Structures are given as structure tokens and as C-alpha cells.
Amino acid sequence: MTEPTEIRPVNWDGAPFSGRLIGGCLDVLDVLCGTRFDHVKEFADRYQEDGIIWFLESCDLNVFAIRRALWTLKEAGWFKHVKAFLIGRPGVMGQVFGELNQYNAVTDILGDFGVPILMDLDIGHLPPMMPLISGGFGTIRPVDGNISITYELK
């Protein structure tokens, strides 16, 4: 069971949006960036007409590590063609160092894209840990203070 959460939207007017879903755990993605396994830019270019919806979360990164990982992926060009970011609650929930918290660690880096950022989603390492289909075409809609994601596998 999980504590009730409230989605924290940034740059989102509540209108539905669609795109190709890709993402995962920052703890792992940060390590893969720039290796021979990194084909993210090719994927983003292949589906640029769909646009990319990134889903990201972290297991045990602190707020500084979350910020560094996002900066690394941004500078590597991973967020090319981004339409939105879906951010799961981090495993290290509620951590604060000085003025840096789990929210501005994300928005300070990703806010420059001017796309919707939906934070505190039930994706990732905290229950209920709802899975997302990486590579699927998803449509995100608001539903009673939460979101609905429908998939089209094409």
C-alpha cells in the first residue's frame, strides 16, 4: 500500500498529450549514457514526429545525484524531441539539502524545455510501482486529480 499522492504538474494546462514513451530508472540510465549501449538519440530521431514522453524515477539517488544525472542526459542530447516528462516519486522521498529538494532538482534542469512535467507519479520504486511500456505510443489525460495513460502499440 502507498501513501496517497498528489500529482505536481509543471507547465501543464491539463490538456491531453501523446508521444512515444521511453525512460526508466535514473540510477541505471545515467551509467548507460555514452556507452556502446546508448542508442537513445537514434530512437528519438526515429520517432521525432510522435515526440518523446520521458518517464523517469530513481531508486537510491540523493537529490544532488538526481540533478547530476538529469544534467548528464540533457547534455548528451537524450531529451531531443521531448514532449513531456513523467517523474516518479524517488526512493529517497522528501530529501532536502539546503534549498535543493526532489522537485527543484528536476525542474531546474528540465524546466528549460517548456514542456509538461508531471511529478510524484506512482511509477518507479515506491508502491504501487505501476509499469509503463517503453517504446509504446502513449496518451496522457487528466482524470480526477490523477492521470490516465492509454497505449497504442504501433
Instruction: Identify low-pLDDT runs.
Output: none
Strand order of the largest sheet: 1-7-4-3-2-8-9
- Give the termini distance in whole angstroms: 33 Å
What is the helix content? 10-25%
**Secondary-structure-derived class:** alpha/beta
* Elements, N to C (H/E): EEHHEHEEEHEEE
DSSP helical segment count? 4
Total beta strand runs: 9
Radius of gyration: 15 Å
Brief account:
By secondary structure, this protein is of the alpha/beta class. The chain is 22% helix and 31% strand.
Topology overview:
Layout: E1 8-10, E2 17-25, H1 26-32, H2 40-46, E3 52-57, H3 63-75, E4 82-88, E5 96-97, E6 100-101, H4 104-110, E7 117-121, E8 137-143, E9 146-152
Parallel strand pairs: 2-3, 3-4, 4-7
Antiparallel strand pairs: 1-7, 2-8, 5-6, 8-9
Helix pairs in contact: 1-3, 3-4
Tell me what the structure shows:
The chain has 154 residues and is an alpha/beta fold. It has a single domain (8-152), classed as Glucose Oxidase, domain 1 (3-Layer(bba) Sandwich). The chain is 22% helix and 31% strand. It has four helices and nine strands; from the N terminus they run ββααβαβββαβββ. It has helices at residues 26-32, 40-46, 63-75, 104-110, and strands at residues 8-10, 17-25, 52-57, 82-88, 96-97, 100-101, 117-121, 137-143, 146-152. The strands form two sheets. A seven-stranded mixed sheet has the order 1-7-4-3-2-8-9. Strands 5-6 form a two-stranded antiparallel sheet. Strand 8 and strand 9 form a beta hairpin. Helix 3 runs parallel beside helix 4.
